[in-house]
Amino acid sequence: MYFIRLTLIFFLLTTAYFVSAQELNARVTVNSSRIGSTVNKNVFQTLQTSLNTFLNNRKWTKEVFLVNEKIDCNFFLNLQATADANVYSATLTIQAARPVFNSSYASPIINYQDEDVYFKYIEFQQLEFNENRVGGTDPLTSNLTAIFAYYVNMIIAFDYASFSPRGGDAYFLKAQNIVNNAPETRGISGWKAFDSRRNRYWLVENMMNTRYAVLHDVYYGYYHLGMDKMYEDENSARAEVLAVLNRLNSFNADNQNTMMNQFFFQGKSNELIKIFSKATQQDKIRASDILQKIDITNATRYKEELKR
Fold first, then answer.
1. Neighbour-count burial for 153-186, b at 16+ CB within 10 Å, e otherwise
2. CA 278, CA 275: separation in Å to the nearest integer?
3. Is the overall model pTM greater than 0.90, yes or no?
4. Of 30, 150, 235, 272, which residue is 20 to 30 A from 77 by alpha carbon distance?
């Protein structure tokens, strides 16, 4: 009887642990160096702690994540004071990676900077988010959690999309719902098509637009059929990555103003150079030619490092 009771307790504790296990292994850093010295800096440490709790303690999906399945991600919030008390403008850098099968390597899946962060925060205020009422009662206060919730859903969506065909659709849809119901008031931007050609609206729009369905094939092909197969069969995995580059090249030619042309490559240049440095001369030249056209920021690196 004693043994049965211990077994039951162990089962209940274990079950509770796994059911409550969160999806993210997130680290938020709040930088206040651009804020004047007259402001109490403790408020920003409190904000950092609250944001880490908000991301890591909230259940974002209905799935059960084991500890080693959590998605590694980083958020760097770089603050600047405004003329209004307790109101800040900021840039937010979002980075996320996913593990590659049979290795200790994590491949970058998001490395993006959002320059349109504007919000109100008073120390010790509760950070709340309701996906059924994204704007909340105070748009300036709600905007901060809406932005973070948006990127959480995009991180989960891209992660899922990299493991199965169209796997991230449910979370792209959640992110789009946040865009459609985002807070609106003076100073808030980044949620509307007319704000710019490179913002939260366009990022999820590109992934939800049926005209750009090939982007889902790109993520699945690059990560699961390419990166995940590197240990098993490096040559066929590299061929799949090259096939992805060919798809992106065609996509870029037909859709030159889409946000995803730049978004996909951010943080990947080192990885791509390493992948093709061991390729045949023919594939190395082909990869270099494509990459110089569609990842212009790193064109010189590809030209120099893939000619050897």
1. bbbbbbbbbbeeeebbeebbebbbbbbeebbeee
2. 7
3. yes
4. 272
